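Researcher: Let's try something more involved. This one mixes different molecule types, so please make sure each is placed in the same coordinate frame as the others.
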Amino acid sequence: MNAVAIPEPQSDVVIRLQDIERIYHMGGETIYALRSVSLTIERNEYTAVMGPSGSGKSTMMNVIGCLDSPTGGNYWLNGRLVSAMNDRQLAHARNRDIGFVFQTFNLLSRMTALANVEVPLIYSGMRRRERHDRAQHALETVGLADRMSHRPSELSGGQRQRVAVARALVTEPSILLADEPTGNLDSATGREIMSLFDKLHDSGNTIIIVTHEKRVADHAARTIRLSDGAVISDGPSGDEA
Amino acid sequence: MLLGETFLIALQSIRGNLFRAALTMLGIVIGVAAVITMVALGAGAQAAIDAQMEALGGDILSIGSSNRFSRGVSRNQQTLTTDDADALARDSIYFDGIVPEIDNRQQIKYGNTNINVTILGTTPNYADVHLFNIAVGRMFDSSDDAGRRRVAVLASEIPGMLDTDAAGIVGRTIQIRSISFDVIGVLESKGSSGWRNPDDDVWIPLSTAQFRVAGNDRVENISAKVREGVSIELAMVDIERILRREHGILPGADNDFSIMNRKQFLDTRQEAAEVFTYLLAGIAGVSLLVGGIGIMNIMLVTVTERTREIGIRKAMGATNGNILLQFLVEAMVLCLLGGGLGLALGAGASYFASEFAGWQTQISSASIITAFTFSATVGLVFGMWPAKRAASLDPIDALRHE
Ligand SMILES: Nc1ncnc2c1ncn2[C@@H]1O[C@H](COP(=O)(O)OP(=O)(O)OP(=O)(O)O)[C@@H](O)[C@H]1O
Ligand SMILES: [Mg+2]
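Model: All components are placed in one shared frame. Result:
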């Protein structure tokens, strides 16, 4: 109890997971999506998360993104205990601190690409004109200048993914969480997105990226491997566990 | 800022499902229309009834001859006489005024102008009992009546019909059935009572009418003004007692006269108007309730359909409050649109009802405020639960929703 109450002292640590556990109860069965995951991520770290399908990568990203509540353990974001935050503080964290690229994009199907990218800016209270300019700029950055008024259903899978990336970047969050951001991209576009992430890293962002591809993971300095909900290795990229 | 944004999102969402929105609004439309009509007609009908009550005098009983049946044949005869009126005035303590009258249509002539109007033969207290005021000149008095003098008092519209005015005709002579009458006064306008226009009559003393025009002492009608504080029923019983005695009607035989109670008549009309108002209030209440439930239902459907959207918005930084507001505004916009349509429908309905029933109706700013208050309240009350449900969704569960 005491350990919980002590605030995280090191200011360079932006994410700290301590014995994080995420259990699902399916009928009589108990599924451990995450079991006792402990790790810290420092400011401006570039981390890749790898592991087989179903190993808990997305679950961990959702916990870090303040979307899912772990069933056990503690999580501090920028030194603040997330389980103690109220709805407004959580919404603020999702809006300002974190940019999230979902594995399944999660775009609003009734809206254009531009309107989709504007959504987080609406909730940060930005004025229409500035919002518009920022969203437009974000879409240009991911190479979708000519597709802004298309709805998601009128875009290819790769283009949708790039809209999702633009939406995650548009609020200029300090932490970028990307769940397989290159999964649907051809290698050329994938490389463009990765060089964008590299640039963001160079400008001081903290990046966590889930991937199956070693080529992508090699952009990161550090690779965390998950298996069956547990961390099985955590070290510099390129090392084979 | 965010409220405006929320408003836009609501409008977009309604536009995306226009037909469904229209069906959902129907209950609100009918409910608000009923409220508007109720307010407009209720006030109009009440005003009309009050005006009639005032004009007719609710406390005046009207006694007329009634048809008598003998051997299965109805004989239409006038059974009332001046003596009956005198007996009522003498023997009953329940009346402030007893006014016998006869009327028939006659040709009158002034200069070269001929008109056909109702000549009313009555006693001098007619003006007091029926609440008329003299504009110019004087009313005839009992000596005019006793002397069967040829004097006439004109209702307000008569001078104009004779191509002159009130001041111009008092002191002049008009011809009624070629008999000369001196015009001694002109009345102020009374306004229509709904049955007939009292402003185009010519009044002459009763005796003059009976003996110079009609040739007998029959009267057509006797008005009896009930003294204040006396019950109408008691007064009617007393009239019956005196007239049966005067007419020598044996116990068990039918009256040869009838007593009309105008107040009763007006009360019936008033009750009808009230029943109509309650009916509309009932329709309004039920429609608004059903409409509200419809709104709630459709909002619950919308929330379920858009669960993923809610998850996405929350993931992008929407607070529970933002989501609550979004769905509440959507419910209220639906209701307000319905309220606007209902207002138009209610205005149309009141217009036709007033044309049809002859009641004054008005769509006042009060009814517009009522319409929007009702619909906004319905939106707020019935939109709250679905909106709360949307707001309390867990982000990750909402995102996973298919
Ligand atoms: N809502 C849920 N209910 C029950 N089990 C769940 C739920 N969500 C995830 N799981 C389980 O948790 C485990 C981890 O899932 P997760 O989505 O994190 O995997 P992943 O590593 O992202 O896989 P992939 O590479 O295929 O995306 C899986 O076994 C999955 O079946
Ligand atoms: Mg996954």
